[in-house]
Amino acid sequence: MTLLSSLxxxxxxLWLAAIGIVLLGIAAFSDIGPRSQDFVNRQVVFIIVGxxxxxxxxxxxxxxxxxxxxASVAIYAIAIILLFITLASxxxxxxxSWIIFRGxxxxxxxxxKLAVLILLAKYFSQKHVEIYRTxxxxxxxxxxxxxxxxxxxxxxxxSTIVFIxxxxxxxxxxxxxxxxxxxxxxxxxxxxxxxxxxxxxxYQRNRIISFIDPYLDxxxxxxNTLQSQITFGSGQMFGTFFEEKDTHSPVLVPEPxxxxxxxxxxxxFGFAGVAxxxxxxxxxxxxxxxxxxxxxxxxxxxxxxxxxxxxxxxxLINAGMNLGISPITGIPFSFLSYGGSHxxxxxxxxxxxQSIRIRSRIQS
Length: 364
Description:
Layout: H1 3-9, H2 12-29, H3 36-59, H4 63-67, H5 69-87, E1 99-101, E2 104-106, H6 108-127, H7 134-153, H8 157-174, H9 178-198, H10 202-212, H11 223-234, H12 261-294, H13 298-323, H14 340-359
Antiparallel strand pairs: 1-2
């Protein structure tokens, strides 16, 4: 397969949808603070790096991951090692989520999500006929438990939820029995109750309590939720982007570049902009889903559907906390929020999706 033929087979509409969301994010957090230009410049660099890696990943034959267990296990092992290193790294804002090297920061949990997805897609593509066996459910759960536990220790509750959501979704895609799903839900309920009393930090419990009623502590644990709701609604229909002296209308939420980028976007572009953003996001999911449903390859199907699960879970959690309908967990809005680790990892994932599209037998 020549370079030119591979480039022709790339789903450029999928890439443009992803880049479109990134550019909307850049437009949203430009000129909202004294450091805005720095964030914009870095995000542009992340776009370039991510696009290059996406193209390179599309040239990589994904069937190596499908056919050779050693490849998926090696990627998973590297991710786990990086998560262990993270726990020994310096704290940033009270958490050990980043590895810092010569001024550059890297968040291993983002790479770990992709690594876990690859491993689960490989495992379930081999075992899907026997997914009813309890040993396969337990084995796959163990693979997820390690990175989920390590991210919870950082503590990063949001990424822990993503790992668990990905595991449950992959079980459903692989065809788990209803009784096993109910058992998982019951066990999960017990473990969540245990975590509430013995694992969660005080500030994490306060965030959940304040989510239920932020007015219980409007100047403390409920402050971010209330400010996010106010910021989100202040955009009204068309936002403040085209108004004069918009920089004098401050965005009141903390972290408007990442955790609360959706609220900052809503303020800048209003309901019309949010509708456009969601339309592009749904189009992106549709394009990936189209590849998943038309390929006759189990690994390709599972990887594509799992990738959708990752970005959609990020969307649900981030949008929910920006709207005040879910607890604040500090997780980015896929492609919209600032951040190199998340964006570059997603672009690599898109590259594997592109490789699937190029090399799989697509059913019409």
